[in-house]
């Protein structure tokens, strides 16, 4: 059965190590990251390694609401 992981990350940079652990250990089909306090111009980029040793293969969906 495929699984989906959704995480309201609450600070992409401050939770980067935990995010990498999740991605490396997860067998998820999809990973959804949500950050409510970022605007469209503040989206961080997520680089997915393409080498054969990488286990980071799920598709990513990034959502962000407008900052106020």
From TrEMBL:
<dbReference type="InterPro" id="IPR036691">
    <property type="entry name" value="Endo/exonu/phosph_ase_sf"/>
</dbReference>
<protein>
    <recommendedName>
        <fullName>Endonuclease/exonuclease/phosphatase domain-containing protein</fullName>
    </recommendedName>
</protein>
């Amino acid at each position: 059965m495929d699984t989906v992981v959704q995480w309201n990350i609450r600070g992409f940079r401050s939770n980067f190590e935990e995010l990498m652990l999740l991605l490396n250990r997860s067998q998820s089909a999809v990973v959804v990251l949500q950050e409510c306090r970022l605007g469209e111009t503040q989206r961080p980029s997520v680089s997915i390694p393409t080498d054969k040793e990488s286990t980071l293969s799920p598709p990513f969906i990034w959502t962000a609401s407008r900052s106020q």
